[in-house]
Design brief:
168 residues; alpha/beta; 4 helices
Length: 168
């Protein structure tokens, strides 16, 4: 089995893996993304809250405006402590000029994932391989060899973004 060589391989084509790949691509770094699942975006309930630093990262990728337009802004949150009978309110406006997005946003993960996958398809530096699971890893002196359900991939750097049950 011959191995394709890439500077960076990302294992996992979820939001974290694709943001990492797109951020590297924005810097001109070619990236191969490997994901055991198919390209379908399932409409299942997962995370839905995006905080200001996450919106900053999406802004750097040119996606924040569309995400904000499709989400619900939360400008204040309250924390209740029943034992102390206390309520604390946090107003995101307190972030003032230190945040591009002084709010948190409710935006379903499946919608974000669809946008990220579309952006990855448009990025010439990003190659996403769906239905390509990692079956083994060999650490070399100057690269990592990833054995997959298809061809092997040799990369200088590997980012594990394949979730809580990762084999990496």
């Amino acid at each position: 089995m011959s191995a394709e060589t890439a500077p960076v391989a990302v294992v996992g084509a979820g939001p974290v893996g694709l943001v990492a790949a797109l951020s590297l691509a924005r810097q001109g770094v070619p990236v191969v993304v490997l994901d055991a699942a198919g390209p379908e975006v399932r409409r299942e309930w997962r995370g839905s809250t995006l905080h200001p630093p996450t919106l900053d990262a999406l802004g750097d990728l040119g996606l924040a405006d569309a995400v904000v337009a499709g989400g619900v802004r939360v400008e204040r949150v309250q924390y209740r402590d029943v034992e102390l009978d206390a309520v604390a309110t946090f107003d995101y406006a307190a972030l003032g000029p230190h945040a591009r997005f002084p709010f948190r946003l409710q935006f379903e993960q499946y919608k974000l994932l669809g946008m990220l996958r579309d952006a990855a398809e448009r990025a010439p530096e990003v190659q996403v391989r769906y239905r390509t699971g990692v079956t083994g890893v060999e650490q070399g002196d100057d690269a990592v060899l990833l054995h997959t359900t298809a061809d092997a991939v040799r990369a200088r750097w590997v980012i594990g973004a394949d979730g809580a049950h990762s084999d990496l």
